[in-house]
Amino acid sequence: MAREEKAYARVIEKVKKMILSGELKPGEKLPPEREFAEKLEVSRNSVREAIRIMDMMGIISSQQGSGNYVTCEFQKSITETMAMMFAMDQVNDKQISQVRYSLEVLAFTLALDRVREEDLAKMEECVEKLDKNGDSKNNATLDKIIHYTLARASGNQLLIDILEACSGVFDIFIEDMRYGILKNENRKTELNECHRHLVDALREGDREKGLQALKWHFEMIDEVLG
User: In Å, how far are 5, 28, 65, 217 from 223, measured between CA atoms?
Assistant: First the structure.
């Protein structure tokens, strides 16, 4: 058993080295299982176990009938780790909200100098649709797009991944949170006013206005979370 565990660890280490050296790039297909097994002198079972673990870690994606591809989708593993911590009461919704708030403040600060016109246009479009749309489920999607676009505008991939993980945990365990806020017409109006101020602040380059909008936004979320 110890030898088998060590064998699959060798396969994972080999793939990591191939990625770090540039021998394997995102989107490229891994060598066949048999080739790995022969080259590293391990069993096919060890290779399969390594592939299963790397798939869970977000390093690769296993596609039935096609093969295994390098994806480096680490947001997936971050989300799964946070979800397990939440499920086991290691973290709670308030703590996740606090982390998300801090990271959105950082995302906004970085985006002030990097936001593109297309990002601003997308956020403004979502704000306008939120004002007019009566479908609460649709509104929840629009809300998510606004926050994802803000994260993307920061230009920091790690920040994007962690924010997406925080959002993903809320979607898994508190799936009605956005819906619950946006179902109430007064709350929806107030929340979208936060969004409007946030987008206006990005367009105007007004840091204080944006930070105040985010503070207001997360105070509302904390009120709903109780």
Answer: 48, 46, 48, 10
Q: What share of the chain is helix, strand, coil (3-state, %, to 5)?
A: 75, 5, 20
Q: If you ran DSSP here, which 8-state letter would residue 41 be given?
A: T
Specify whether the CB–CB gap between 153 and 116 falls below 8 A. Answer: yes
Count CA atoms within 13 Å of residue 101 on its CB side.
18
Instruction: Give the span between the Cα atoms of 61 and 56, in whole angstroms.
Output: 9
DSSP letter at 29 equals B
CA distance 16 to 10: 10
Q: What's this model's pTM, rounded to 2 decimal places?
A: 0.71
Euclidean distance between the first and the last CA atom of the chain, given in angstroms as a whole number: 48
Cβ–Cβ under 8 Å, residues 51 and 62: yes
**What is the CA 109 to chain-centroid distance, rounded?**
19
- If the chain, 226 residues long, is cut into consecutive pieces of 10 residues, what is the mean pLDDT of each piece? 68 88 88 89 90 83 85 76 83 88 96 96 94 76 91 93 84 64 76 94 97 93 78
Q: How far is it, in rounded angstroms, from Cα 59 to Cα 80?
A: 14
Q: Which residue in 172, 192, 168 sits closest to 181, CA to CA?
A: 192
Which tokens sit at 35? Answer: 């080739």
Structure tokens at 63: 């596609």
Structure tokens at 83: 């979800």
